[in-house]
Amino acid sequence: MIGNALIITVAILIALAFWLMDQLRFLIPYKHVLVDQYGDVLLLCFVVLSANVFFAVYVAQRKFLLKDTGRKLSHLDKQTVTGEAPMPNPVDSIDKESV
Prior knowledge:
- The chain is an all-alpha fold.
- Helix content is 81%, strand content 0%.
- It has helices at residues 2-23, 31-65, 69-82, 90-98.
- The longest helix has 35 residues, at 31-65.
């Protein structure tokens, strides 16, 4: 899930970078001045923006892609405890391997 969020974040940031490069063409002659004087601030803003986008994508994925996960897992746990599940008991499989 973290990998998917990272890929989506990178895609969003690349799209934003291309859009900004198109919109801010008039700043090209001043790029050396901007990088020298404001490079640290721009880097900090980029890191904060990246972290915010990553966490927003991560939270959105957890909210929309993991619906009812707790309910599904509790149902599986109840089946395993009552013995209704077609899963072997871990103790039985250890005993068979050691014999």
